[in-house]
Write a structure and sequence with these properties.
The complex is a heterodimer. Chain A is mainly beta. In chain A, 0% of the residues lie in helices and 53% in strands. Chain A has strands at 3-5, 10-14, 19-21, 24-26, 32-39, 46-52, 60-61, 64-69, 74-79, 88-96, 103-105, 109-114. In chain A, strand 10 (88-96) and strand 11 (103-105) form a beta hairpin. Chain B is built from no helices and 11 strands. In chain B, strands 2, 4, 5, 6, 9, 10 and 11 form a 7-stranded mixed sheet that branches. In chain B, strands 1-3-8-7 form a 4-stranded antiparallel sheet, with no helix packed on it. Classes of the chains: A mainly beta, B mainly beta. Chains A and B meet through strand 5, strand 6 and strand 11 of A and strand 9 and strand 10 of B.
Chain lengths: 115, 112
């Protein structure tokens, strides 16, 4: 079965500081992908970053980086230099070849950036 | 504009009404998806279409009926819904099954 766990229902961070959003996953499939999406109050899901299970290096996209620890089955999102516009819901998701590569989402973490 | 457009953005309907949600993508993607996002629950995959053929129906009640007339359009026809069907309905598309998804802004549905 596919399972994505986000244990932090909500997080606060001071503007300009870095924040880590946790994500752990459970799979026996050696081929999988891990995604992070941002959902502002408008409802749209915005793709942030992707990590493939065979990728040797951690993915980075601007201020976003993914701390991929394969042995621990964790894929934490690190946002550096937080901005007020980063306040949103953040979802971790996984796709597995075994399950037709469909995206399965975690419960999400609400991030609030304080000025 | 993400490239995936959903209409309407908001919909209020009675339990005896029939309505349709529309999703349109101009990204040249071959796969389209309907997700349901209820309060305090993870996103639930409802339907998957690949090359206009339904490839998955995740035990969704028959009061939800999808339609994919071509690779650019996806509909979700609604009839005799229940109040617990109130949710944000998100459409997504991808180049192929397994590729990155592009989501629309969603339709916020309220059933009264």
């Amino acid at each position: 079965a596919q399972k994505i766990t986000q244990t932090q229902p909500g997080m606060f961070v001071q503007e300009k500081e870095a924040v880590t959003l946790d994500c752990t996953y459970d799979t026996s499939d050696p081929s999988y992908g891990l995604f992070w999406y941002k959902q502002p109050s408008s409802g749209e899901m915005i793709f942030l970053i992707y990590q493939g299970s065979y990728d040797q290096q951690n993915a980075t996209e601007g201020r976003y980086s993914l701390n991929f620890q394969k042995a621990r089955k964790s894929a934490n999102l690190v946002i550096s230099a937080s901005q007020l516009g980063d306040s949103a819901m953040y979802f971790c998701a996984m796709s597995q070849r075994e399950y037709g590569n469909k995206l399965v989402f975690g419960a999400g973490t609400i991030l609030r950036v304080k000025s | 504009e993400t490239g995936v457009t959903q209409t309407p953005r908001h919909l209020v309907m009675g339990m005896t009404n029939k309505k349709s949600l529309k999703c349109e993508q101009h990204l040249g993607h071959n796969a389209m998806y309907w997700y349901k996002q209820s309060a305090k629950k993870p996103l639930e995959l409802m339907f998957v279409y690949s090359l206009e053929e339904r490839v998955e129906n995740n035990s969704v009640p028959s009061r939800f009926s999808p339609e994919c007339p071509n690779s650019s359009h996806l509909f979700l026809h609604l009839h005799t819904l229940q109040p617990e069907d109130s949710a944000l309905y998100l459409c997504a598309s991808s180049q192929a099954l397994g590729a990155g998804y592009t989501f629309g802004s969603g339709t916020r549905l309220t059933v009264v």
